[in-house]
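Backbone-to-sequence.
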């Protein structure tokens, strides 16, 4: 953290320039999603806006794009950045099954999932085999595909933004501030897609701020933006693509399920507190 006032002032100016550019680039696509058709093309474009904002901010400030942490870093942080989001996604849905907020998918549901993924007709796969193959494919190929879009966000948020914040804030401040901004940046999507806007705003902010503590921890430890890219992609795939199809909804408990659900907020909150403790203890 910088102690010199002029340097701190310059860091804050850089931070707000970046945020202004993010809003400017993102707004047309948010408008398109809310008022036109919610195409994945717009979502993909939105996810690259933070990267574009970071590149332009660096250009304005006379800094090189190569100054971002492009190095791969230690493999242990890459591994943990896959394991942790997969783990909290699995724990979330196991608890949903245990407490009866949803049920483990039956044969009919798994067969429908296999048909959707194009696995039906490949030999004589039974529902269990379909589930195993689907999880393997989504957990590898889909994570790689998802990384192409999460890279855009993470170049901006974890590759650039949190390093600027680190000049003026503590680890706790960096994680809270970046998490709040990151969550608020999604608000048009929340309004458009939410069934219960108030509840899902609360749970979503808890989830995103908790994730921010974890991702800031791995970014600072690895000195690389790639763990955040992997973490973000794995989290999206497990919570959006893998665990929901393995779960049958029960009427009246929908607010416990999904990435905006209460259970996911509780579990990520616990993980976030743990990584806040680790980060502060290690003086990040």
């Amino acid at each position: 953290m910088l102690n010199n006032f002029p340097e701190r002032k310059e860091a804050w100016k850089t931070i707000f320039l970046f945020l202004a550019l993010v809003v400017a680039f993102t707004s047309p696509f948010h408008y398109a999603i809310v008022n036109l058709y919610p195409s994945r093309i717009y979502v993909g474009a939105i996810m690259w806006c933070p990267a574009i904002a970071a590149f332009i901010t660096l250009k304005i400030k006379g800094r090189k794009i190569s100054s971002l942490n492009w190095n791969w870093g230690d493999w242990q942080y890459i591994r943990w950045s896959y394991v942790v989001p997969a783990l909290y996604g699995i724990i979330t849905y196991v608890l949903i099954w245990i407490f009866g907020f949803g049920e483990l998918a039956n044969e009919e549901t798994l067969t429908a999932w296999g048909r959707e993924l194009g696995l039906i007709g490949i030999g004589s796969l039974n529902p269990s085999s379909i589930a195993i193959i689907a999880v393997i494919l989504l957990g590898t190929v889909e994570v790689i595909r998802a990384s192409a879009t999460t890279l855009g966000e993470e170049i901006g948020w974890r590759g650039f933004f949190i390093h600027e914040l680190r000049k003026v804030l503590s680890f706790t401040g960096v994680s809270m501030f970046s998490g709040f901004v990151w969550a608020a940046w999604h608000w048009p999507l929340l309004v458009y897609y939410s069934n219960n806007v108030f509840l899902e705003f609360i749970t979503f902010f808890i989830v995103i701020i908790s994730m921010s503590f974890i991702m800031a921890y791995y970014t600072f430890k690895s000195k690389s933006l790639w763990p955040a890219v992997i973490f973000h992609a794995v989290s999206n795939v497990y919570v959006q693509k893998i665990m929901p199809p393995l779960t049958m909804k029960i009427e009246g408990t929908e607010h416990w399920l999904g990435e905006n659900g209460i259970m996911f907020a509780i579990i990520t909150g616990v993980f976030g507190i743990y990584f806040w403790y680790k980060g502060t203890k290690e003086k990040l």
